[in-house]
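Repro:
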Amino acid sequence: MDKAPSSITNWADKSGAFNRAPSQFRNAISSQPGAEFPPEKGRYHLYVSYACPWAHRALIVRKLKGLEDVIPFTAVHWEMLEKGWRFVRPDEKLPGDHVTPDPIHNCTHLRDIYFKVDPDYHGRFTVPTLYDVKQGKIVSNESSDIIRMFYTEFDDILPEKYKQVDLFPKHMQHQIEGVNDWTYNDINNGVYKTGFAQTQEAYEKAIEPLFAALDRTEAHLAQHAAPYYFGQHLSEADVRLYTTIVRFDPVYVQHFKCNVRDIRSGYPALHKWLRHLYWDLPAFQDTTQFEHIKKHYTKSHKQINPPSITPIGPLPDILPKDQEVPAAVAALRSTNQ
């Protein structure tokens, strides 16, 4: 019944390069008359992992748009092994809100919900998964679609202050879409292409555009971040970039071998932008759970880290806004001389 790959590295092609499979469920919640999935309070349930950067997008936007009382969520355990994401057992206590057993079907694994929807399903069992409780259907498991549904489709049942939160304003859409393309390919997915490469050639082919894109982002933020990616307006560009950058130093540098530079010592503008979002906006800090992040990657990817040892550092997971690592202080002094 299950033809999903048993190991994430099975998604590599013959050259050893990682290829991400497309999401299978691409339906939409819509406020249009007659829509199959109309916006209703309590009708939909969001399944996420605090470890996953794609699911993290949905958690951030849900909070920014004030959807906490409209769309409940459940976070899975950080462990993802042969059967994919699993739910915590009743006797397990993990950090973060709503890390509980499955409240809808009492399933042990996320995959069980997919098979309830489609017994012949052959795709991936991914988070975020937006589930329609009323119809017993999966609306979407594509994060980029889910966050855009959250932007506007529930506005008619939200307080005015949340209606005013616009992460994809018309006058910025062209800019945002332009940034999304290369940010996704070279940074968001770039860390995975680097980390899951199965040959030296594939690894080197992936890491070069990753750091070129980080350099490009650093140059942009050094000139334009005041304090967000596009100046004074928090946007989708901030959300989509944040979920990768906040994981970069704690996980991607060592686990995915993205070690040309780290954020805290090699990218001062990115580091400043990251810490502003984390320390000043609760939607970012409250949805960032470093224990889930570090343990998921290091203990779930057995092919990369067979003994499942989780490095202690870097410490702290994210620096305070007024603190820099010595290397960054030295670099700033050198620049200012």
